[in-house]
Amino acid sequence: MKIRSPIISVLGHVDHGKTTLLDYIRGSTVADREAGGITQHIGATEIPISTIKDICGNFISKLSIKDTIPGLFFIDTPGHAAFTSLRKRGGALADLAILIVDINEGFKPQTIEAINILKMYKTPFVVAANKIDKIFGWESHPGNSFTQSFQEQAPSVQQDLNQKLYELVGELHKLGFQSERFDRISSYASQISIIPVSASTGEGIIELNAMLLGLAQEYLTQQLEIHENAPAKGTVLEVKEETGLGMTIDTIIYDGVLRTNDEIVLMLKNEILTTNVRSILKPNPLEEMRDSKKRFQKVDEIVAAAGVKIAAPNLEDVVSGSPLRVINDEEDVKKEILKEIEDITIDTEENGVLVKADTLGSLEAVVNILNQEKIPIRSADIGDVNKKDVIKASISQKEDPDHGVIIAFNVDVHPKARRELEETSLKLFQGNVIYKLTEDHHDWLEERKSAVKKHLLDSLIKPAKIMILPKLIFRQSKPAICGIEVLNGTVKPGYILMDENGNKVGSIASMEDKGETLPSMSRGQQVAMAINDAIAGKDFEEGDSLYVDIPEKHFKVIERKFKDKLNDDELACLEEFVRIKRKDDFEWGKFGLFE
């Protein structure tokens, strides 16, 4: 049994310093690189315990760090998409995470999304409160510990930093986490450590490394136990073609040992692939991967934790995020991979939206967020949007227009599918930021609800009242034409009018002002009104008030859904109208037991 290095990922809002932080952590060990103290992996960088102790100096001794943890294994592909793609059965591949937040900007939408993803995978994390060097008046001391730098600052700067930290504490509290500055923590098991840092100057990086190491030693030792001679377990980062090697997979091995010629099982979209490892390739130490002509060295075996490139036959259709297993008991391994396929091809509802994503983890993350929003999902699958998806979405749309939606995370749309989409009213949400996709979908749904609500409100006959103006009856009947003033609400042609006793007077045929026919009239306006089926002098007199006769069904909808949309005049008019209606029928407009 061996203890491996904890795998650590960095998450946070765009431009809050994820890449800069990883670059500094790597760059701070230049001397150790030259001595071979730092190891480069595919998609990761390993910093051994000896190097971390050199970086952290005396600070590490305060935490009673032993040599049980061999070092820290930082994933080099920061971001939520990478984090969700890097997975193993039952959760995230990362053992720990750094949530990086710009201390001057605080929480942003992507910060909250990152926390939700960490919650989903139950991944322990620390908060790196970055860009302390940008606080007004901060005097930078490059490479120093936060503690040393903080002591050198003016009292007003110290106060400003503490205020910003407590704002972060408040934001975390809203999301269900107790937190505190790392040196004021009373319980590391129940509180999140906030470590003020500058990824640019390196201030606080000492404490950040030490805290990660301390947490791993205290709480993760059992989780980090691996069997050096057990068959390897890993996860596929990327599938790509390499000159001279053909199709390869970049893989993080997190348990066991992988050897050349091992038989491995991987996942295709709807089935499993069994193939043999032809070559295991490690990056050459310290070389820039993109520039080096001799980027890799062949090795016969690799022990976790490690990031390697694997060359093997038939890798073309392997899914990014696929589990990798070395076969020992073939049936058990295949069953495990098949269970993964079942888990990620989701048909949750008979009807709902369609979800497509690039990797297993990304698919899980999108589905999880949609479930939280209570959005039904018809199907969720890996791969580009194709013609079949458009057909499925069209069927969903016929059942419910709100479900005529395809949410496509980090995938393309096939040309044929795009042409089909252009001929439909389906809505496509496509992008590579989960929170933006789900936010845009939420906004679209709200707009649709508002539009439907507005359409319904516009179609309802609402309370209104008019007065017959004295000496302005122009025709007695067929239709009666008279001058009126709108006292409350809005009147339109077709509305039925009643008098103050609830008797029907007639219906509005038309309204004119200076020869112009008007579609509606509102409070305070005066016009000539033609009233069908009414006789002036019999059904109404000069000076009479007439009400728009609201159908009972319309009244009930207004009462239930739109009463808050009526202004004070309309509400007063409605009360008068209801009193008139209930003189003869006390139950008019009241809700029955089964309504």
Characterization of this structure:
With 595 residues, the protein is α+β, with helices and mostly antiparallel strands. The chain has 4 domains: 2-225, P-loop containing nucleotide triphosphate hydrolases (Rossmann fold, 3-Layer(aba) Sandwich), CATH 3.40.50; 233-342, Elongation Factor Tu (Ef-tu), domain 3 (Beta Barrel); 346-456, 3-Layer(aba) Sandwich (Rossmann fold), CATH 3.40.50.10050; 465-584, Beta Barrel (Elongation Factor Tu (Ef-tu), domain 3). It has 16 helices and 35 strands. The strands form 8 sheets. Strands 3-4-5-2-8-9-11-10 form an 8-stranded mixed sheet, with helices on both faces. Strands 17-16-22-13-14-21-18-19 form an 8-stranded antiparallel sheet. A 6-stranded antiparallel barrel has the order 27-28-34-31-30-35. Helix 3 crosses helix 9 (205-219) and helix 12 runs parallel beside helix 13 (415-422). The model is unreliable at 28-36 and 286-293 (pLDDT under 50).
Which characteristics define this entry?
single chain; alpha+beta; 595 residues; 4 domains; eight-stranded mixed β-sheet; Elongation Factor Tu (Ef-tu), domain 3; eight-stranded antiparallel β-sheet; Rossmann fold; elongated; 16 helices
Structural domains: how many? 4
Low-confidence stretches: 28-36, 286-293
Rg of Cα set: 34 Å
* Helix content percent band: 25-40%
N-C termini distance: 68 Å
Strand order of the largest sheet: 3-4-5-2-8-9-11-10
Structural class, from secondary structure content? Answer: alpha+beta
The description of the largest β-sheet is: 8 strands, mixed
